[in-house]
Design brief:
By secondary structure, the chain is α+β, with helices and mostly antiparallel strands. It has two domains: 10-89, no CATH class; 93-209, no CATH class. It is 46% helix and 13% strand. The chain has helices spanning 15-47, 51-56, 60-86, 103-115, 150-165, 167-170, and strands at residues 121-123, 138-142, 172-177, 180-183, 188-190, 204-209. It has a six-stranded antiparallel sheet with strand order 1-2-6-3-4-5. The longest helix is centred in the first third of the chain and has 33 residues, at 15-47. The structure holds zinc ion (ZN). Zinc ion binds at residues 2, 133, 138, 140, 206.
């Protein structure tokens, strides 16, 4: 499934990225800490001690529960909200590195780069709550320039055909291109429209492979 703008490899976070992540974590902690403290109080009151007792002392258990909950909230919020938000700022990659990729997408990456020298950007591993990119078994092949002109559409069609013809060899399961899903077995179907050209795969092909395992 495709939900994000195809980004560069997040393993190559630059200094800006690190600074942003740090700042975001601190801000989130500031908001999460009081919420977590209230939750910790409630848990302790209900399970372990009367309210009057709790009020008199700040127990180590309460501090521990609050700290752990705040850190967890900050980590989850950071992963889901910040990682995609950071991507445009960090767009730098040419063709993707093989970092984080399983064997099939590595083969696809190299085959597309070799046969289609006009392709400059292939995005691979990235945080993806829905799986395929995070599992390292999907790639996004970005069509350079204006994706609406006939040459771009023809290029995308060629790459799709190339991948499907070599589906066995490359482990390709399906390709998504221009709001259609094309399976390795030759079947195809239109997809429900989503809210952007990126999400509708007019700007890039999404390639899902079997995996299967890391080199
Ligand atoms: Zn994708």
């Amino acid at each position: 499934m495709e939900y994000y703008e195809p980004p560069p490899n997040p393993l190559t976070l630059g200094l800006d990225g690190v600074a942003l992540v740090t700042l975001w974590s601190l801000l989130t902690l500031l908001i999460a800490a009081p919420i977590a403290d209230i939750a910790a109080r409630a848990i302790l009151t209900r399970c372990f001690m009367p309210r009057s007792e709790l009020r008199r002392r700040v127990s180590p258990a309460r501090i521990t529960i609050a700290a752990v909950a705040a850190l967890a909230l900050a980590a989850v919020a950071g992963w889901f909200l910040l990682a995609p938000a950071l991507n445009p700022a960090l767009a730098a990659a040419d063709t993707t590195s093989d970092a984080g990729l399983q064997r099939d997408p590595i083969a696809v990456n190299h085959a597309v780069a070799e046969h289609f020298p006009q392709i400059q950007d292939i995005a691979g591993f990235r945080p993806d709550p829905f799986g395929e990119h995070e599992q390292g078994r999907a790639l996004d092949v970005l069509i350079p320039g204006d994706p609406t002109i006939p040459q771009s559409i023809a290029l995308g069609d060629d790459i799709r055909d190339f991948l499907l013809q070599r589906a066995n060899e490359l482990g390709v399961q399906h390709v998504i291109w221009r709001q259609h899903l094309y399976r390795a077995d030759g079947t195809a179907e239109p997809m429900q429209p989503r809210d952007s050209d990126v999400a509708n795969h007019f700007t890039h092909l999404h390639v899902t492979t079997a995996g299967p395992g890391y080199p």
